[in-house]
Specification:
By secondary structure, this protein is an alpha+beta fold. 29% of the residues lie in helices and 31% in strands. The radius of gyration is 13 Å and the shape is globular. This is DUF4242 domain-containing protein.
């Protein structure tokens, strides 16, 4: 499954709740996307999320339905130091 990095910019500090996360995951499941990991900036206004999805459009649909931004979406591949050892 292709992997994508999503940059999200928020006008206000992001507050993450269990209920909000459950709703995001429910919508993501319906759109066929899987949230793998998120990095949150120190000011809590920007996230970098790693997702698996069939397409950018699936990610955009999930973001739209979840009412969260998806400002930049790029397809990525994983590289680790162990690959070069």
């Amino acid at each position: 499954m292709p992997r994508f990095m999503i940059e999200r910019n928020f006008a206000e500090r992001l507050e993450i709740t269990k209920e909000g996360t459950e709703r995001v995951n429910l919508v993501n499941d319906e759109e066929g996307v899987k949230w793998l990991l998120t990095f949150l900036s120190a000011d809590k206004r920007k996230t970098y999320c790693l997702y698996e999805a069939e397409s950018v459009e699936a990610i955009r649909n999930a973001a739209r339905r979840n009412q969260i931004p998806a400002d930049v979406i790029i397809q990525v591949d994983e590289i680790t130091p162990a690959m070069f050892a």
